[in-house]
Each structure stands twice: as C-alpha cells, then as structure tokens.
Amino acid sequence: MGLACGAGAALFWAAGFATARHGILIGFSPADLALHRFAWAGFLFLPYVARMGFADLGGIGWRKAIALTLFGGPPLALISYAGFILVPLGHGGVIQPSSATLFGLLFSAVILKEWLPASRLVGAGVIVLGVCLIGIEALATIGHHGILGDLAFVAAGLCFAIFAVLLRRWRISPLPALAVVSVISLVDFPIHAALFGFERMLSFGLAENLLQLFVQGALAGPAAIYLFARAVVLVGPSRAAVFTALVPAFTLAIGYILIGEVPSVTQFIGMLIVLVGFRLTQRQ
What does pTM read for this prediction? Predict the structure, then answer.
C-alpha cells in the first residue's frame, strides 16, 4: 500500500506537468492554469479551514500562511507554467523536481543543520550534470529563450524547496498547509477578473477547463499530497522520498501518450542521469 501511494503521488504530479504543457499548447495562459491549480481547491478546503479557525488558521497563523502561499501557491505555479511557453515538457518535468531536490539538500544543510552523507553530495553533483545537459540542449536547439524557460523551472524548484523547508522548520503538516494555501489563493479570483477576465478561459470550452480543473486542482494538488503523506506514514520518510525520482520518467511517458511530445535523445539521457542522482541523494 505504501508503494502504491508513493507511485500514485508521483504519477499525479507528472500528470500535472503534462496537462499544463497541453494547456499552454492550446492557448491557456499561465495565469489561467494557476487559477485552476489553486483557486478551485480553495472552495473545497473552505469548510476544513473554517473548522481550523480563521483567527489563527489552526495555529499556523496568518504570517506563516501568507509566506507559504507566496512560495507554494499561485506565484510558484505561474513561474512553472510560464516555462512551458519556452521549452518542451521534458525540460520542466526533469528540471523542476531536480532543482527542488538540490535546493532542498542545500537548505537542509545550511538552515536545518542536517548532516549530509557523501552519497547525497555525489547525487547532487550527478543531478546538476543531468540538468546542465538538458540546459545545453535548450541553448543549442531553442536559443537563449530556451535557457530562460529552463531558469523558470529552476526558480519554481527553488520556491518549492523554500516552501518545503518552511513546513519542516515550522512543523506544519502538508495537508493543513495545502488547505490554508488553497483558501488564501481564492484572492486570485478577483485579481484574475481584474487583469485578464474569464472570456479567454471560457473560449476553450467546458471539456478543456474541466480537464485542467481536475488534474491541476485535484490530482496534482490535494490527491498527490495525501498519497505522499500516506506513503511517508507507511514506508517511512526516507523511502517515500525516493518516489520523487519517478516524476521525470512518468512526465515523459504521460507527455508522449497525452500530447505526443517525444523527448529528444539528449533529454532522455539527461533524465537517466538525474534519476541516478535522485537515487544517490536518498541513500542512507
């Protein structure tokens, strides 16, 4: 059951990447996708947060909740989705989780004062090698704006790593954090209405909007977080962390099935190198 939960979480996160790339290709803006990613979940979690209490958000507090929203909410989604405008799916599906892992290791050592064994440092170096290989391909085949796309995913990984280290430092469970971030993200509705309106989103039809709402707002968000949290309980945090290594492979597979985007040989080699690095970073 623990293995199934961990693999399911990785599958849902990968589906979020692939569906976001599909949305960008048909004309959704990053702001449209960010709205689907968090705002609808906000309505779902309103009763849960109401039971926690709006005064202090179940002990989290508004200051911490706003900080978590800035690094793990709509701004993170906007940066990530913007990257898919510039580079293919394989770049985002590999670089963002890799960057989150690298920055997570850095923050764990510097901020949380955790000891890093040699295997994790070697694994971090291997991940950097794989990411650099994909970045070189972006520069050679896409141009300088390809590097900007890759840097967007590096920035998104950085935001997620900050979000994760704040959860650990403040000892906040993932599900309450996701609920609070989603509810605060409801402010995105009036902002989106004032800046962009909803006509563009509606023009893509009900089916495409429901697809983004279901995958981004349900699977890649609450469902993935719940499954990963269950995996941590069932198999332990160190073993559960290995499941993040499945995200790049799942992303490329779903991208091929869903939108017919075939990764290049360089992207595939870079992904394999990153997978080796992932495995090394999780060794005890």
Answer: 0.85
